[in-house]
Specification:
The protein has about 500 residues and is of the alpha/beta class. It is built from 14 helices and 18 strands. The chain folds into two domains: about 375 residues, Alpha-Beta Barrel (TIM Barrel), CATH 3.20.20; about 90 residues, Immunoglobulins (Immunoglobulin-like, Sandwich).
Length: about 500
């Protein structure tokens, strides 16, 4: 029975490879992210060394699945999974808000180092407004509510910054500046929690802030949207002024507007970013206030109110002013049957559709642990089909498009650890020009060098060396090394012919 299942699965993979061949089956550049959340309690109260080991296992597994970016939740409710002088340690880390981990460590700093060590980006994921969830029974004296209670409101049994106060925006930008300035992150990330999801039995209590800071608006919905717009713009400006190479991205709810609300909306019938969460995502994209957009299209193909097929096509048409990636729900994908092939789940159909749309430049997996656990063979298909070869993260030419210089002094050297290909970093004029990663390609000696073919990438690394494999001692290969700057601009190539020996050097 097991062999029969494997044969069926192999046939499916071959079908996928054939059906997507006309598209870009293996793009050289693709965002391949995964969200690692804390609010599910997976780390709560976990001893330091156990949590470190858990994160390392997850990262190794995800790298093996071709993931090249981690979005790590570090601020869930005005708290911190990092060392902050402004906000308390998170209960999702230690079990009690304000309690420091023992022995002391900094999860964000640890994740930055571990991700970069594996050639991955690290995006620091924050929730801007949420200040207390229902599970948090006591706030630390360090919590901002205890310092600025006038800036907060209660809604739906939870505590939020009131977005209507300029002081709320200033405080959130202060937190962003603190994170960006102290940590070598690649991006600040915000998810779908802008104004809170509506509670039908309750009006959001912002009459006081509207009266004081209405700025001439007569329509409260327009004013609320403007509050969020101003925050997004100010966060973008904060990040740029602090470190211009750090990106700012969002992952909004999967529906912008329904067609019944806006003729340009999607053919859907669900909650709306624009009308219900007061998030005008397209305005942010078109004005360049965000550097990437990951709409959470968590439904299945054929969903009666929010069809994945309709939504991905809608976002592909309307959100191309900035890099567009798709938020994928792993569990829903592998538990919903393919409409055309009910004996299999929807992963293959979704990825075929994603790869078919030229403005979609990647995806992000919700949630990382579901990939690690290989639910529905999801990880296996990523590793063996869609992420079979490494991929560079899409560049951000709207921030910077100047490539770094070429690597220097490329040469193989025998060492006590084996045969090593060494090089030195190119000179850099400034931090934006600095090489921070390197791409190592391998070609047969008589093979044309084509750097657009990712099947020749053997390593993406922060090291200035690559350990060469042993072979028969007769075959020559051409190795090519390029440099990447912080925004993944790629340098010109440097080549070296190498004969891989099988004998141990004495």
């Amino acid at each position: 029975m097991k062999s029969k299942v494997l044969l069926i699965w192999l046939a499916m993979l071959l079908f996928v490879a054939g059906s997507v061949k006309a598209q870009t089956m293996h793009p050289k550049r693709e965002f391949r992210g995964a969200w690692i959340q804390c609010v599910n309690g997976q780390f709560q109260g976990m001893p330091t060394e156990q949590m470190k080991a858990t994160l390392i296992r997850q990262l190794d597994n995800l790298k093996g699945a071709g993931i090249n970016a981690i979005i790590f939740q570090v601020r869930a409710e005005c708290d911190a999974l990092y060392a902050s002088t402004y906000e308390p340690w998170s209960r999702f880390l230690t079990g009690l808000q304000g309690k420091a981990p023992q022995p002391g460590w900094d999860p964000l700093r640890f994740m930055v180092e571990e991700c970069h060590k594996r050639g991955m980006e690290l995006h620091a994921w924050i929730n801007p407004y949420r200040a207390q969830t229902k599970g948090t029974t006591a706030l630390s004296p360090m919590h901002p509510y205890n310092k600025y209670p006038n800036l907060f409101v209660r809604y739906g049994g939870q505590l939020y910054f009131d977005p209507g106060y300029p002081e709320s925006r200033a405080y959130i930008c202060k937190i962003v500046r603190d994170i960006v300035s102290r940590y070598d992150i690649d991006a600040i990330h915000m998810d779908d929690y802008f104004y809170p999801y509506p509670n039908p039995e309750e009006e959001f209590p912002d009459n006081i802030s509207f009266a004081a800071y209405g700025r001439g608006f007569t329509n409260k919905a327009d004013w609320r949207r403007d509050n969020v717009n101003v925050l997004i713009k100010e966060i973008h400006e904060t990040v740029r002024s602090c470190k211009p190479w750090v990106k700012f991205g969002v992952s909004p709810f999967g529906i912008y507007r329904n067609r019944k609300s806006d003729p340009n909306g999607s053919d859907t019938n669900g909650l709306q970013n624009y009308d219900d969460l007061y998030a005008d995502v397209l305005l942010w994209v078109n004005n360049g206030w965000v550097d990437y957009n990951i709409p959470q299209i968590y439904w299945e193909i054929g969903h009666p109110a929010a069809d994945y097929d309709k939504l991905i096509r809608w976002w592909a048409r309307h959100s191309a002013a900035r890099p567009l990636f798709i938020g994928q729900d792993v569990v829903r994908t592998v538990t919903k049957p393919d409409l055309k092939n009910p004996g299999q789940h929807q992963m293959l159909a979704k990825y075929n559709l994603q790869r078919m749309l030229p403005t979609v430049q990647g995806s992000c997996q919700w949630y990382a642990a579901a990939v690690v656990e290989n639910k529905g063979n999801y990880r296996e298909v990523l590793a063996n089909v869609y992420h079979k070869y490494p991929a560079l993260i899409p560049a951000s030419p709207f921030i910077d498009k100047e490539a770094p210089g070429k690597v220097k002094k490329l040469k193989p050297v025998w060492t006590a650890d084996g045969y090593i290909l060494f090089w030195t970093a190119p000179k850099a004029k400034d931090e934006m020009d600095k090489a921070v990663r390197y791409v190592v390609y391998r070609f047969n000696n008589d093979e044309k060098v084509n750097l657009n073919d990712p099947s020749h990438i053997v390593e993406i690394t922060t090291n200035t060396f690559y350990k060469l494999p042993y072979e028969n001692g007769k075959t020559k290969y051409r190795y090519v090394v390029t440099a990447l700057d912080r925004l993944h601009n790629e340098s010109k190539a440097v080549k070296k012919k190498i004969k891989l020996l099988s004998l141990i050097h004495i």
